[in-house]
């Protein structure tokens, strides 16, 4: 697989495929490479060796199990190398602004000309066509223009973005599934194809029931904080020491919750007798529940609800998340070698999908810039002398 993407969504997509066994060749500009190599956070320098200036935790999050080549796509020799790689690849993934790949002489028609079965997977801010196709797109921009920020945050507060690049990663997830589907289609038809997606379209898609309410009823959405527009109670409640998320998605669960809270009669209150009534009287119910939840610490409520069948969970700090017994049991933190790190290794987030037979694996840490350039070019049949000439010409 040939991977010509930077930042988050493309690399996240191809990392998933790499975890599943794909041989991913990451094409980067020889000078600087992927932008995320430089996205270090405060204090991060203690992790890396003094001469390791071209890597970061951010880059290491989404680029494991890949090989990196440094290649200048604007040079004719660089273009020829891409075409030769395309001949030997199943998939090309790119996230240029629509049309840019064509200007480089590497559009779909050209790639298909050298490999009729190639699958070109393109990612952009707004999609390959339409009036906004040429606009650059980034995670929070897609979340804003696609409506997600309009519905995220507290009811009386400003719009709030999720704590991670959610639209980038959701788009990468969509695309990785589409690539697999295109490969399956090619198995049946023998024909490759171009597929494209965007941050904007992903955001519209995950508006889900909120978006459906608008397109069918013209119902404008609002921000609910951690609450749910159609299920009550279903939100975070402040305890004596932190927060606990509790839900009751049906009358049986609500009755059970009331019993666990020591107020059986609450389930028979006409204001809360069913979900419709609870939704209409959510403020009254929230006030009553808040007064109860704040009387105990979160751990005490967890013990009280254990085995009750009530949906509940604490809002954990990252310290608690990564020491969580379930995270440990499911191998959600693993260690890989990383030469750029002071310890010679780093810890990475595990693979969230488990297979009984064809097991994914984290085989290699993220590559240094151009680490595999010579290796890949030799696989294409280039001699050491030819590679040396490319280096002198600043093609690689």
Automatic annotation (TrEMBL):
Recorded superkingdom: Eukaryota
GO MF, any single term: succinate-hydroxymethylglutarate CoA-transferase activity
Alphabetized Pfam families for the sequence: CoA_transf_3
InterPro entries reported in the protein's UniProt record: CoA-transferase_III_domain, CoA-Trfase_fam_III, CoA-Trfase_III_dom3_sf, CoA-Trfase_III_dom_1_sf
Keywords annotated in UniProt: Transferase
GO cellular component entries: mitochondrion
PANTHER family the record matches: SUCCINATE--HYDROXYMETHYLGLUTARATE COA-TRANSFERASE
Family: Belongs to the CoA-transferase III family.
Protein name: CaiB/baiF CoA-transferase family protein C7orf10
């Amino acid at each position: 697989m040939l991977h010509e993407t930077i930042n988050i969504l493309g690399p996240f997509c191809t990392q998933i495929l790499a975890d599943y066994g794909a041989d991913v060749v990451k094409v980067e500009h020889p000078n600087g490479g992927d932008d995320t190599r430089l996205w270090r956070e405060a204090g991060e320098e203690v992790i890396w060796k003094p001469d390791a200036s071209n890597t970061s935790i951010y880059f290491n999050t989404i680029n494991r199990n890949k090989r990196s080549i440094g290649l200048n796509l604007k040079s004719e020799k660089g273009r020829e190398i891409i075409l030769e790689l395309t001949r030997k690849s199943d998939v090309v993934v790119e996230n240029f602004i629509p049309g840019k790949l064509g200007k480089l002489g590497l559009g779909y028609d050209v790639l298909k000309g050298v490999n009729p079965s190639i699958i070109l997977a393109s990612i952009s801010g707004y999609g390959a066509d339409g009036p906004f196709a040429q606009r650059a797109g980034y995670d929070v921009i897609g979340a804003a223009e696609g409506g997600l920020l309009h519905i995220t945050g507290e009811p009386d507060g400003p719009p709030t973005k999720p704590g991670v690049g959610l639209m980038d990663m959701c788009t990468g997830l969509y695309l990785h599934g589409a690539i697999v589907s295109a490969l399956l289609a090619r198995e049946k038809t023998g024909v490759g194809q171009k597929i494209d997606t965007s941050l904007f379209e992903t955001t519209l898609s995950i508006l889900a029931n909120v978006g459906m309410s608008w397109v069918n009823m013209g119902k404008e959405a609002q921000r609910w904080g951690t609450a749910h527009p159609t299920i009550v109670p279903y939100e975070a409640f402040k305890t004596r020491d932190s927060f606990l998320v509790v839900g009751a998605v049906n009358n049986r669960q609500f009755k059970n919750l009331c019993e666990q809270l020591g107020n059986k009669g609450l389930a028979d209150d006409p204001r809360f007798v069913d979900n419709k009534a609870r939704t209409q009287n959510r403020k009254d119910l929230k006030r009553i529940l808040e007064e109860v939840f704040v009387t105990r610490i979160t751990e005490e409520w967890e013990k009280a609800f254990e085995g009750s069948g009530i949906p509940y969970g604490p809002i954990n700090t990252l310290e608690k998340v990564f020491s969580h017994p379930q995270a440990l049991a499911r191998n959600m933190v693993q260690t890989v070698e990383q030469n750029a790190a002071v310890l010679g290794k780093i810890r990475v987030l595990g693979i969230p999908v488990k297979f009984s037979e064809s097991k994914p694996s984290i085989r290699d840490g993220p590559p240094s810039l151009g680490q595999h350039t010579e290796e890949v070019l030799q696989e294409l049949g280039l001699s050491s002398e030819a590679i040396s000439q490319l280096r002198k010409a600043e093609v690689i």
